Every structure is written in structure tokens, then in C-alpha cells.
């Protein structure tokens, strides 16, 4: 876990990754990254790699209030503060490119949410309340995307990736997990299209593959990665009997692209336990770098590395309360617990519960 990683393009000081976590701390108006966010990521720059919270690639891509965009000049300038702070500490940082799809509301995104098909399920997101302030609001019925809107969305991702490089990021991670836009194209329940983007598995993968290929051409494959969650059912009505074979077929297509890594998110919200057989199947079709996240402990993370099921292990909430998580693992120091108080300050607010967690004192 503490050894360096030397990939074809991505090189890190250790295998410990700070997983992407929405914190909703941007400056308003404009969803602009700020000095406080730069300090938050700077404190955690000893991670081998930081993956930022999801950054919407356009206004319509938003699904949660106060999340940092990457589509305006002001947002790009704000992100430069973050990347400079991390690089000054010797860290590496990727931005997670995000389109929430149907998990949104017009009051947040500015227009009706988009999805592969006009299918909604009961869901809630963080947004403006009718009585004022912010809280959890019900999502809205989405509209089915036209092929022109699909092509335009790929273009939005390409522009966002180019913006990310301009902002100083070392690479980008496409969020294709957790019931957001790309994930809904991959699954039968949410994708009932009859065109080239729906129907069989090949068609359901098309949008994601076209977008990843376009990103590779724009900024280089070594700076592109993708997050998947075949065993997470968050954002869906039920389990998809085809998502695992589709994921394996997708990995076969990703293998020759030589991405920086493929990131599997597990064990969050509504999920199924990932069988070891799946990890073996993944390795049988995909030999390039793999990252795994999902309520890992130091022991379970090390086991994934030892068995070669993963090249990187990502931690979310442990990094919230332990900005020096790498040092705590290195020296076997105890971890500060992510407790009820930490959960209360996870989304929105100021410095409390964000940049005021201390490093371990010997």
C-alpha cells in the first residue's frame, strides 16, 4: 500500500488514493472552487493520488447545489488554486468529471434533467428548498436525450477535460457509476432506447466508449480514467441481470485504450457484495491498472493489493477525519473516527468539519 506505483503514464508515491466525495463548499454565485477547498485538498496531498469531488461538466449536468463546476473561466481559475496547492505538496490530483443525468431537478440544473429514457425512480438530491435554504429535494421526471444531445454531452466532457488540463490537473476520471448519466445508459431498467444507444449491450456501452475515446484523443489516454459500480444499485429500481457481463465486455474494449486506471466503487448505499469470482474475471480480461473503493479497512485494502485484484485502494470518509491518513497507516497510528458529528458537516457549511481536523500528534 505504501509502495510507489509506476504505470505507463501515471506515477504515484504510494497506492493510497483519496476517493471522490461531494462536499458542497464552493463560492457563490457560480459554483466556484475557492481557497478553503484548496486548503482541504492541500492537507490531504500525501495521498498517492487525490480524486476530487464530482465536477459537473455543464450547467445541465448538475444534480446537487454548490458542487464545483469545470465549464466556466471562473471555475477554471478557482481549480488552479486547488491544483497548485496539491502540487506544492508533491501530490497528484485528478478531477472527477460528472453528469448526474436523471438524478436532478430543474431548480438545480436550470432545465429538465436528461436520461437515456424518460424513466424516473423515487430519489432525492441536495438542492434549494421551496421555503428557502437547502436540503434534500425529490428528483424530477427526466426527458429522453436526443442523439444530438448525446453528441453534445460528449463534447461537453471533452471541453471539461481540456479545461481540467488548463487548470493544472494531472488527469480526469469520468463518473460512470452510482446511477448517474453513463450508468443509466449501461443498464436495462433505465435504458429502453431503440436506437444505436440502446437495446443490446454493445449499444448500451456506446455513449461511454465514444466519450472515453474522445477524451483520450483530446488529452491522452494516460490522463483518462473511469469509475464503474456494477454491484451498486443506488439510483436504480432494482438489480440488473446484465450489468456484470456488460461490465466485463466493457473492460475488454477498454483494455487496448490504456487508460490511467479503471475505478470500481463498491459497498455504498444499496449494493450487493462483490464476489471474489468477479475480481478474478476482471483480471482475466483487464490487465491495466485497477482501483477499488468502498468502506475499505487497511487490512481489506492490503488484501486486494496482495491478491493483485487492485493496483490502487481508495478511501473516502477516513480522509475526511484523517487528513494525514497516509502517515497514520505508515506509523500504525490510530484513526480519528468518522462519527455522527462528521456526517452532519459533510455537505455544505464552512471550515468546521472540513479543514479543522488535526493531524495526529505523537
Give the end-to-end Cα distance, rounded to a whole number of Å.
Answer: 22 Å
As for the number of domains, it is: 1
Tell me the name of the CATH homologous superfamily.
Aldolase class I
Oligomer: single chain
What is the alpha-carbon Rg in Å? 19 Å
CATH topology: TIM Barrel
Global structural class: alpha/beta
Report low-confidence residues grouped into runs of 5 or more. Answer: none
Number of strands: 14
Number of helices: 12
Mind explaining what this structure looks like?
The chain has 362 residues and is of the alpha/beta class. The protein has a single domain, classed as Alpha-Beta Barrel (TIM Barrel). It is built from twelve helices and 14 strands. The protein has helices at residues 35-43, 73-88, 106-109, 147-166, 181-186, 201-219, 243-254, 276-285, 298-306, 317-321, 325-331, 340-344; strands spanning 5-6, 11-12, 16-18, 49-56, 93-98, 114-115, 124-128, 134-138, 143-144, 171-175, 224-228, 261-265, 290-293, 312-315. The strands form four sheets. It has an eight-stranded parallel β-barrel, surrounded by four helices. Strands 1-2 form a two-stranded antiparallel sheet. A two-stranded parallel sheet has the order 6-9. Helix 1 (35-43) runs parallel beside helix 2 (73-88) and helix 4 (147-166) packs parallel to helix 6. The chain is globular, with a radius of gyration of 19 Å. The two termini are 22 Å apart. The mean pLDDT is 97. InterPro entries: Aldolase_TIM, OxRdtase_FMN_N, Oye-like. Its cofactor is FMN. One of its GO terms (cellular component) is cytosol. GO terms for molecular function: FMN binding; oxidoreductase activity, acting on the CH-CH group of donors, NAD or NADP as acceptor. Keywords: Oxidoreductase.
Amino acid at each position: 500500500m505504501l509502495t510507489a506505483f509506476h504505470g505507463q503514464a501515471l506515477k504515484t508515491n504510494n497506492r493510497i488514493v483519496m476517493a471522490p466525495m461531494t462536499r458542497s463548499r464552493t463560492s457563490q454565485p457560480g459554483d466556484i472552487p475557492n481557497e478553503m477547498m484548496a486548503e482541504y485538498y492541500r492537507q490531504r496531498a500525501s495521498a498517492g493520488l487525490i480524486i476530487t469531488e464530482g465536477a459537473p461538466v455543464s450547467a445541465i449536468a448538475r444534480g446537487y447545489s454548490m458542487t464545483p463546476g469545470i465549464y466556466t473561466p471562473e471555475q477554471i481559475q478557482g481549480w488552479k488554486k486547488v491544483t497548485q496547492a496539491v502540487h506544492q505538496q508533491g501530490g497528484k490530483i485528478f478531477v472527477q468529471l460528472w453528469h448526474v443525468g436523471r438524478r436532478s431537478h430543474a431548480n438545480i440544473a436550470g432545465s429538465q434533467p436528461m436520461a437515456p429514457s424518460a424513466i424516473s425512480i423515487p430519489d432525492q438530491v441536495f438542492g434549494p428548498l421551496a421555503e428557502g435554504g437547502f436540503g434534500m429535494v425529490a428528483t424530477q421526471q427526466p426527458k429522453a436525450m436526443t442523439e444530438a444531445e448525446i453528441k453534445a454531452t460528449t463534447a461537453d466532457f471533452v471541453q471539461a477535460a481540456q479545461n481540467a488540463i488548463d487548470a493544472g490537473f494531472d488527469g480526469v476520471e469520468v463518473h460512470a457509476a452510482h446511477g448517474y448519466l453513463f450508468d443509466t445508459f449501461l443498464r436495462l431498467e433505465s435504458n429502453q432506447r431503440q436506437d444505436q444507444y440502446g437495446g443490446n449491450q454493445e449499444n448500451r456501452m456506446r455513449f461511454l466508449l465514444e466519450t472515453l475515446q474522445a477524451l483520450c484523443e483530446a488529452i491522452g489516454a494516460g490522463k483518462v480514467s473511469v469509475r464503474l459500480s456494477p454491484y451498486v444499485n443506488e439510483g436504480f429500481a432494482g438489480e440488473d441481470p446484465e450489468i456484470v457481463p456488460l461490465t466485463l465486455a466493457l473492460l475488454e474494449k477498454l483494455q487496448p485504450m490504456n487508460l490511467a486506471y479503471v475505478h470500481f466503487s463498491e459497498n455504498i448505499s444499496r449494493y450487493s457484495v462483490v464476489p471474489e469470482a468477479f475480481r478474478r474475471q476482471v483480471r482475466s480480461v483487464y490487465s491495466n491498472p485497477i482501483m477499488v473503493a468502498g468502506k475499505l479497512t487497511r487490512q481489506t485494502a492490503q488484501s486486494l493489493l496482495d491478491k493483485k485484484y487492485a493496483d490502487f485502494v481508495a478511501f473516502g470518509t477516513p480522509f475526511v477525519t484523517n487528513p494525514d491518513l497516509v502517515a497514520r497507516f505508515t506509523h500504525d497510528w490510530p484513526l480519528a473516527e468518522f462519527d455522527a458529528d462528521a456526517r452532519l458537516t459533510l455537505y455544505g457549511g464552512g471550515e468546521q468539519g472540513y479543514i479543522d481536523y488535526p493531524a495526529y500528534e505523537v
